[in-house]
Sequence to fold (381 residues):
Amino acid sequence: MRIGITCYPTYGGSGVVATELGIELAALGHEVHFISYSQPFRLNGREEGIFYHEVPVSNYPLFEFPPYDLALASRMAEVAEFYALDLLHVHYAIPHSVSALLARQMLAAQGRRLPFVTTLHGTDITLVGLDRSYLPITRHAIKESDGVTSISRYLKEKTMEDFKVDRTIEVIENFVNCDVYTPLKDEEARARARARLARPDEAILMHLSNFRPVKRVTDAVKVFAQVAREIPAQLVLVGDGPDRSAAEWLAHDLGIHGRIHFLGKQDRVNELLPLADVLLLPSELESFGLAALESMACKVPPVATRVGGVPELVDDGVTGLLYNVGDVDGMAQGVLSLLHDRARLEEMRCAARRTAQQRFCASLVVPHYVRYYEQVLGAAG
Fold:
């Protein structure tokens, strides 16, 4: 198939999943065309079968805000026509599914069929889409999509309830390449890599996010502060965003700034995650929890909040530990209990990796998308 994919190309779960999906589809022999305002950050430009089409946006003085959604719709229609795309797959409802709807209508007027699939990722529904100014157009785009998928049962149910849609929504969970996100089997190599971040006697806690308020990165710092009072440890914060400054000041005020590594945005998190003992995910909401899955694949159990789709991924007490939002004390005690009981930690590490391999590997999930595309194309035909 020839598939057009549109996503937000910046750091964030929806962009990561869309890009990885494109890479996996190309590896299966499909032709993938990314259509966005910049190249997705996980693409290196050398993947066979993958093409990138930039969306030019006019800065004409009349427009206070550049009309990206209209420019995107025009580019989608152009690429679909020039490269004979079979369908579009848009990630994140706003504005991508609206743009795809316009592109489909433009081509229909020329007698050309272009079905599109919308994948709902989370904040496009739980935050942006529920804004009263966006709710009607989001609902319309969902209803008009030729196919709709969601990354968790939680998000499917929330979409149907909040947007009052009665159409079928297919749950296709997020995935991870289990050959890329993998533990370091060579313990000597792991020890050498860990030495860049911590002494041999120190535990490593890690947090990975876009540092937006919903991720509650300051809770990760508070949890670490309690852990660090009890045992030698270091905290590694991977990512960047609006709450980074708040996290830095909190670390400074708590006197633990020297034991925290602010690494900023990193392209190769698969090389960092295996170095951790535990992942901290204290989010206020996660529609799935991709960072938790990536850590589990690397044999690192997540200590996370019991929100959204996370309980569908993390089996509390088996593959990780779950707590209520804001329960900093509980999370800290949970981390300490694992670090004090290395046998239990190792058992949890193995269970986490096993779950990732058995349920969430790309080799299992991506064919589900392919079958869904075929179903949508059959229905549209």
The first strand starts at residue 2 and ends at 6. The CA atoms of residues 37 and 54 lie 5 Å apart. The chain has a mean pLDDT of 91.
